[in-house]
Design goal:
The chain is mostly helical and about 150 residues long. The chain contains 4 helices and no strands. It has one domain.
Length: about 150
């Protein structure tokens, strides 16, 4: 006996992401960890050690959350994965290149800015690779899971 009634919609078979897509997802996870250390833990530790307010050297943003979400999406492959990868990649590249143009016009090589610069070089590399994959191999990124329906 078939466990599902005949009226139940058939689900698409979910496939695993390719090795390259898994690499990009894990690249994003490593960037999240590195960014959390560079932007939050290191500045908090330094400020506390210097007797300054703990948030003195923190530049708040939500990019690590977005990178974590995108890394998860590359592995879980919900239907919105491709547009998410495309939009985040383009935004990151435009933002980082504009930051680099301003920074390199008059660089300040303090420990804070050097850490920021090195981190952004790797973030830029990740998103150039992801955008290249989205443009030249779009099928590798497209989601394949069914979205859950609440009825």
């Amino acid at each position: 006996m078939d466990p599902l009634p005949q009226t139940a919609p058939k689900r698409k078979r979910q496939t695993s992401p390719s090795g390259w897509i898994a690499f990009l997802a894990h690249f994003l996870f490593i960037l999240v960890a590195w960014t959390l250390f560079i932007k939050y833990l290191f500045p908090i530790g330094y400020a506390v050690a210097m007797g300054e307010p703990w948030s003195q050297y923190i530049y708040w943003d939500l990019w690590p959350v977005i990178h974590l979400w995108l890394g998860w999406a590359l592995l879980a492959r919900p239907n919105y994965t491709y547009p998410l990868a495309l939009v985040v990649s383009v935004l990151e590249i435009v933002i980082i290149v504009s930051f680099f143009a301003r920074f390199l016009a008059d660089p300040e090589w303090s420990i804070w800015r050097t850490n920021w610069f090195v981190n952004k070089v790797f973030v830029l590399a990740c998103f150039v690779l992801l955008l290249g994959t989205a443009v030249w191999r779009p099928g590798a990124i497209k989601g394949n899971s069914q979205t859950a329906r609440i009825t």
